């Protein structure tokens, strides 16, 4: 099976109307978009998605951030995509950049558009991208039903 990668457009990307420019960057990677949708988030879904952050002091900030509380998005909307193709995870992660926008290469999505609010300890980094093929499959199962994904 070709490699798949989950991409989420986070609330700061939606508030700043960056959806198009981010998709444009990712489309240049010549991967297939095999699923796409707007999702009304629940805290349970965020906590399941970020299970590896359990016990981290910033977890509650991440939950609030993803729920849109810091970006004036009362409907908890997130955009979710599945990209598929050779080395999808590595290609997308390179284009997305480091977790903390202060450390991300300036030409990456997070380097261009992200912001670290150090005082509040909130990392506004615009997008999520799976960090391994294995994690991608776990995440894709959380966010999409099999019927929503094309077999490209
Ligand atoms: P990535 O999103 O690059 O895979 P992680 O899985 O480590 O990174 O973290 C998930 C999300 O949690 C990050 O994208 C970011 O929004 C938030 N985060 C990570 N580290 C911190 C931190 N030290 N302080 C606040 N928020 C953080």
Please name the defining characteristics of this protein.
152 residues; alpha+beta; four-stranded antiparallel sheet; two-stranded antiparallel ribbon; 7 helices; 6 strands; binds adenosine-5'-diphosphate
Give the ligands present: adenosine-5'-diphosphate
Tally of contiguous helical segments: 7
Give the rounded overall mean pLDDT: 97
Q: Which regions contain 5 or more consecutive residues with pLDDT less than 50?
A: none
| Main beta sheet | 4 strands, antiparallel
Our Rg estimate from Cα atoms comes to 14 Å
Sheet with the most strands: spatial strand order: 2-3-1-6
Q: What global shape is seen? A: globular
State which percent range the strand residues make up: 15-25%
Helix content: 25-40%
Structural class by sheet pairing and helices: alpha+beta
Give a brief rundown of this model.
With 152 residues, the chain is of the alpha+beta class. The chain is built from 7 helices and 6 strands, in the order βααβααβααβββα. It has helices at residues 11-15, 19-27, 43-49, 59-66, 88-96, 109-113, 133-143, and strands at 4-9, 32-40, 77-84, 115-117, 122-124, 127-129.
Explain this structure to me?
The chain has seven helices and six strands; from the N terminus they run βααβααβααβββα. With 152 residues, it is of the alpha+beta class. A four-stranded antiparallel beta sheet has the order 2-3-1-6. Strands 4-5 form a two-stranded antiparallel sheet. The protein is globular, with a radius of gyration of 14 Å. Adenosine-5'-diphosphate binds next to helix 4.
């Amino acid at each position: 099976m070709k490699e798949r990668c989950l991409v989420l457009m986070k609330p700061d990307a939606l508030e700043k109307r960056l959806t198009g420019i981010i998709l444009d960057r990712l489309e240049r990677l010549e991967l297939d978009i095999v699923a796409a949708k707007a999702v009304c988030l629940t805290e349970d879904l965020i906590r399941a998605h970020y299970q590896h952050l359990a016990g981290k002091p910033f977890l509650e900030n991440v939950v609030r951030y993803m729920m849109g509380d810091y970006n004036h998005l009362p409907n908890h909307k997130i955009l979710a995509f599945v990209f598929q193709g050779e080395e999808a995870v590595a290609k997308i992660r390179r284009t997305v950049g480091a977790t903390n926008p202060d450390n991300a290469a300036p030409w990456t999505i997070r380097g261009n558009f992200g912001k670290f609010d150090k005082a509040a300890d909130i990392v506004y980094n615009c997008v999520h991208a799976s960090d391994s093929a294995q994690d991608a499959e776990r995440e894709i199962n959380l966010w999409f039903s099999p019927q929503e994904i094309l077999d490209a």
